[in-house]
Amino acid sequence: DTGVSQNPRHKITKRGQNVTFRCDPISEHNRLYWYRQTLGQGPEFLTYFQNEAQLEKSRLLSDRFSAERPKGSFSTLEIQRTEQGDSAMYLCASSLSTDQPQHFGDGTRLSIL
Amino acid sequence: GEDVEQSLFLSVREGDSSVINCTYTDSSSTYLYWYKQEPGAGLQLLTYIFSNMDMKQDQRLTVLLNKKDKHLSLRIADTQTGDSAIYFCAEKAQAGTALIFGKGTTLSVSS
């Protein structure tokens, strides 16, 4: 069990640039989740995939955000035209089913200059 | 709506027991979780309890669930300095897939 892997660990970019993060879930897990965590807060749900299908999106996922999971394995989260308020830790989790616990990666910390 | 509340800080001495408390509002919660987060890292699943249970023990960890009062607690026996971290309580509603997290309790263990 190699765990959930996220890349990069840190990303620093200028306001207005686009960024993309990658998540590799635990290999047999077909459920994948993205969360965002800001300083002093708990993670907040962004979106959920079952295999390649994106089944749930929270209202936090503005139209500048897009997530994909093209082959039902790894997922990418892209943020276009980044803003200061996008600075956060972006966490990915995976699970075997919705009744099984979600296991988290170490996150990608995004800093907007 | 769904909400999870936790006290923000707890300070204990090494060797003592720690009790971290959490309250939630969604009576349809099916599972309740405790996660640990160390600085700069992601969330590590510590333990979880199904809503039809009232207690679960796992080595030094004991989870108590009072469903009537919507109160969850995590007891860590013989707390060590390595237990210093932020502890998050989370619930999963029956209808949803998302976890709803509290703001986390920072546990500080002094030697």
Describe it.
The complex is a heterodimer of chains A (113) and B (111). With 113 residues, chain A is mostly beta strands. Chain A contains no helices and eleven strands. In chain A, the strands form two sheets. In chain A, strands 2, 4, 5, 6, 9, 10 and 11 form a seven-stranded mixed β-sheet that branches. A four-stranded antiparallel β-sheet of chain A has the order 1-3-8-7, with no helix packed on it. The model of chain A has no long low-confidence stretch (mean pLDDT 95). In chain B, the strands form two sheets. In chain B, strands 2, 4, 5, 9, 10 and 11 form a six-stranded mixed β-sheet that branches. Classes of the chains: A mainly beta (113), B mainly beta (111). At the A-B interface, strand 4, strand 5 and strand 10 of A face strand 4, strand 5 and strand 10 of B.
How does the major sheet of chain A shape up? Answer: 7 strands, mixed
Tally of contiguous helical segments of chain A = 0
**Proportion of residues in extended strands of chain A:** over 45%
Radius of gyration of chain B: 13 Å
- Tertiary shape of chain B: globular
User: Percent helix among the residues of chain A?
Assistant: under 10%
The oligomeric state is heterodimer
Instruction: Count all strands of chain B and give the number.
Output: 11
Please mark out the parts of chain A with pLDDT under 50 across 5 or more consecutive residues, or reply none. none
